[in-house]
Design goal:
The protein is mainly α. Helices cover 64% and strands 0% of the residues. It contains 6 helices and no strands. Helix 4 packs antiparallel against helix 5. It starts with 15 loop residues before the first helix and ends in a 7-residue tail after the last helix.
């Protein structure tokens, strides 16, 4: 039987907005995991990766769609392998994040920043939870 740990009481002096944003951010990161499961389910339904483009975009020119898909699939396979056996250091991803951010690619930089958290020991939102005070 699994026991649910007793959670600390949130003091009345805690900024509710900050806690809300922290927890919402953690939920968004978890949503990316769910999105990955949905992507896997889509592949399972299509049967093979080469069937995905036309299943998803039946009205797009088949040659253009195939060219786009070939590149996307190569990137996706690399990313999948990286997630299964991470070989990056968070510091390397931090460097990539800064380069993208400085070049004006803010959305991509944000994605790399989230990925960099995977190589760290704590969940990215855990530091912000210390707003609640020390709980040991």
């Amino acid at each position: 039987m699994t026991l649910t740990p007793e959670l600390p009481t949130i003091p009345a002096t805690v900024d509710t907005t900050a806690v809300d944003q922290t927890l919402h951010g953690r939920n968004l990161r978890s949503a990316h995991v769910i999105a990955g499961i949905l992507d896997a389910g889509l592949l399972n339904h299509a049967g093979r990766p080469d069937r995905l483009p036309t299943a998803l975009f039946p009205d797009v020119d088949p040659d253009a769609l195939q060219a786009i898909w070939n590149m996307a699939l190569t990137v996706g396979i690399w990313a999948g392998k990286a997630m299964l056996r991470p070989q990056w250091r968070p510091e390397d991803l931090d460097r990539f994040q800064r380069a993208l951010d400085e070049a004006g690619h803010h959305a991509m930089a944000g994605g790399v920043a989230v990925a960099a958290q995977c190589g760290r020991t704590a969940h990215p939102a855990d530091d912000d939870l210390l707003l609640w005070g020390d709980h040991e």
